[in-house]
Amino acid sequence: MTIWLPKIASRPGPRYQAIAAAITDAIDQGDLPPGSRLPPQRDLAWKLGVTVGTVSRAYMLAEQRGLLSGEVGRGTYVRDRGAAQGQILGHWNDGVMDLSRNAAHSVAHAAAIRDAMTSLADRQGIDRLLHYMPSAGHMDHRAAGATWIGRTGLKVTADQVIVTGGAQQGIAAVTSALAQPGDIVLTEALTYCGLMDAARLNHVRLEGVPLDAEGMLPDALEAAARRTGARMVVVTPTIHNPTTSTMSLERRNEIVEVARRHDLTIVEDDVYGFLPRERPIPIAALAPERTVYIASASKCLAPGLRVGWLACPPALVEPLVDAIHAMSISMPALPAEIARMWIADGTAVKLTEHLRRETAERHALFAEMFGGFEMRANAASFHVLLHLPEPWQPDEFTLAARERGLIVISAPTFAVTRHAAPAAVRISLSAAASTEHLRRALTELRTALESMPRSRRAVI
Which pLDDT belongs to residue 107? Predict the structure, then answer.
């Protein structure tokens, strides 16, 4: 095993990002050549004075960057990035099942992208897809976004829509354009990690609002708005991440009433809103004058398209476009054109319907294998929030799962303040290539869950 210890004291940002950055630098500088085994997570955590969960998250981030591979029962190794050749982007199977990513997986993607590229190759003016686009996106692509958004019950015009590089860029643009450094932005006590990252980059402070089974509590939002003087609230009313809750129409109206009383701008994250067959209308349809609506192709079509849409009141279009321009000048036209084609020819509807069927089957499998355990689930959701039986703690269980070649996310990762997190983990059911792959992964996960935590073994 390589004797390597990262120096992170002078590195900025969260400790897990500092560790991942140190791994990257060590690989680039040759200190960790391909095949090097990294220290066990528990050992490295002790030497650095951080939690095991911090090291686990750092290793996960480095794996997602393609730098590391975990081998079940053997440890974590530096990948040979030049080894995978012979196909588009290469391919590897490192023996690790990543159940942390909520990504649309569909066997229909290959045929859909092949048909789209063939159609594009036969069209005149294909070279225009390599030109700069307007920062808000080409009007054809904005119109396609308006059409797709209209399927939720929110009717907007093309000039209210801004094309983004996925929902994450939309969240970053909203945070940059509509909040000042030092401002407080309200959101659920458990919230999407990408919002935390955007807030950190823009020096914005998040304040967590308590939740119940439907999501954000209106009374708690009112109290937080009064106490903090905040002017913005970010909310995920349909398939909340990570709890899977969906607000009723009544709850959505109550949130709108609070926002109007306190003059709050509402940012509605609706990336999962296209997955349920039936759902309440978006908050943006109830309060169009004060809501920025965020949608994305990542969850309902394909994550690699990196196409998202902001729909907003006319007065907010210009500042949001300015923020997009500062980040990326303009969106690449090719993925936006593929999304437009799929929306226009019905492929988008077919892909979404396939995802719905596949997701429902995977939820049925999970319910069969984990019946009797406490969980939060929605048959249209890519993920499940599994509450851990005592004496398991989230960080300890994520490590136990990782030792079996499985990656899951602990609930504290989503907590605006750590004390708000339940003893639970989020498990993505969409990450596996097939239902059979998922069954094997869940079998290992169930075995890990039924084993005795190391902390309890030590006591005995």
Answer: 66
Q: What is the 8-class DSSP label of residue 152?
A: G
Domain count across the chain: 2
What is the model's pLDDT at position 330? 85
Same-domain check for residues 195 and 278: yes
Phi and psi dihedrals of 429, rounded to 5?
Answer: -95, -10
Helix (H) or strand (E) holding 264: none
Residue the block writes with tokens 């309440």? 280
Spatial neighbors of 371 by CB under 8 A, at least 6 apart, are: none
Closest CA to 195 of 214, 222, 226, 173: 173
Q: Tokens for 363, please give them.
A: 């939820």
Distance CA(450)–CA(372), nearest Å, equals 12
Which residues have C-beta within 8 Å of that of residue 3, sequence separation ≥ 6?
Answer: none
Handedness of CA 265, 224, 282, 410 (dihedral sign): positive
CB 425 within 8 A of CB 410: yes
Parallel, antiparallel or unpaired: strands 215-216 and 161-164: unpaired
CATH number, domain containing residue 4: 1.10.10.10
Structure tokens at 307: 């196409």
Taken as a whole, the chain contains a residue count of 460
Q: Which domain holds residue 30?
A: 1-83
- Per the CB < 8 A criterion, the answer to whether 269 and 232 are in contact is no
CB-based contacts of 103, cutoff 8 Å, min separation 6: 298, 299, 303, 382, 428, 430, 431
Q: Cis link prior to 12 (omega < 30° from 0)?
A: no
CA proximity to 78, closest of 35, 135, 25 = 35
403-425 pLDDT, tens digit per residue, is 888 999 999 999 998 677 899 99
Does residue 224 fall inside a structural domain?
Answer: yes
- CA dist., res. 432 & res. 440, Å (int): 10
